[in-house]
Amino acid sequence: MQIRLLHHHEINYDLWDKCINNAKNSLAYASTWYLDMVSPEWEALVAGDYEYIMPLPVKKKFGIKYIVQPILTQQLGVFSEETIDSEIVNSFIRAIPYFSYELNLNERNFTPEAAIMPNIIVDLNYPYEYLKSNFSVNTKRNIVKAESNQLHIDRSLKPDEFIRLYLETDRNFKIIHADKIRNLICKGSENNLISICCVRTPENEVVSAVGLLKSGNRIIYLLPFSSVKGKTLSAMFFLINELIKEHAGTEKILDFEGSRIEGLNRFYKGFGGVERSYYLIKKCRPKYRK
User: Fold this and answer.
1) Rounded distance, CA 213 to CA 257, Å?
2) Residues 261-277: tens digit of each pLDDT
3) What is the domain count for the chain?
4) What confidence score (pLDDT) does residue 187 get?
5) How far is residue 222 from each of residues 14, 54, 161, 212, 266, measured CA to CA in Å?
6) Dihedral sign (CA 227, 230, 231, 232)
7) Could you tell me the residue range of the domain that residue 40 belongs to?
8) Is residue 141 a part of any domain in this protein?
9) Are residues 142 and 8 in the same domain?
10) How much is the pLDDT for 258?
11) Do the domain assignments include residue 285?
């Protein structure tokens, strides 16, 4: 298989998005609009007439290019409408032209050399009562608590207000990545690819919210936050339960994106979430990336 490197200006966006949209492992993270927001100078490895593609989120430090997974981008890797086996994945990895990389591959990109990472999903193709029966005792208790607080769902929160509230919460990367977060949410909302769902109190105060990314049949739990009051009121339990109610019995998947933080994984699994692995590859991370 001949794999060629394309610099950003050489990428054919139409062929790229056609491949992503038709891919068996299609993910919105790899669409041109998304990559432009999180990694503006991204490059690509391409085989054939865009039959197999792999985005390279390139950054530069001291004039040296390296690859690092962008913010709010859980999985990238190789995408195709054709079968992707470990030999193809390894061919693309060997074709990465840069000395240093750290990159998350998608769930169809198994290679024995990669570290296994945990994603958590809920298959919503069941009636709500069945889905609810898989909730943990703690999750059910918090939903009852939240419902007693007379919370309600609102989908009219504007992107700018969502971002303002989000950036007021405790986020280590909020200053560095504020512009990218803002651009991503605004662009996605403008094109109906990201929707905002929030929880309000009877006094109309926003106490929890999430930016949801549309990705084929996936609803990706992309950018959540809860205020101190929202946590006290169990507002995020209420929000997720309402999402599951709304989409129960459809062919949708609620994708929590998973976490290596034990408490967050327990929270996601409390809604009946199950693990689905994706993969991490890395090579020669320089000290300034550690």
Assistant:
1) 11
2) 888 899 999 999 999 99
3) 2
4) 97
5) 25, 22, 17, 5, 17
6) positive
7) 3-113
8) yes
9) no
10) 81
11) no
Q: What per-residue confidence (pLDDT) applies to 285?
A: 61
Say if residue 51 is in the same domain as residue 181: no
How far is 27 from 20, CA to CA, in rounded Å?
7
For the stretch 218-222, contacts whose Cβ atoms lie closer than 8 Å and that sit 24 or more positions apart, written own/partner, are 218/27, 218/28, 218/252, 218/253, 218/254, 218/255, 219/243, 219/247, 219/252, 219/253, 219/254, 219/255, 220/28, 220/74, 220/255, 220/257, 221/254, 221/255, 221/256, 221/257, 222/72, 222/194, 222/257
Q: What residues contact residue 162 under an 8 Å CB cut-off, 6+ apart?
A: 185, 196, 198, 209, 211
pLDDT at 218: 97
pLDDT of residue 171: 62
CB 223 within 8 A of CB 166: yes
Handedness of CA 40, 192, 224, 183 (dihedral sign): positive
- Residues of the chain predicted below pLDDT 70: 170-175, 285-290
**Rounded distance between C-alpha atoms, residue 155 and residue 229, angstroms:** 20
The domain boundary residue, chosen from 113, 133, 151: 113
Mark which of 62, 97, 113 sits at the end of a domain.
113
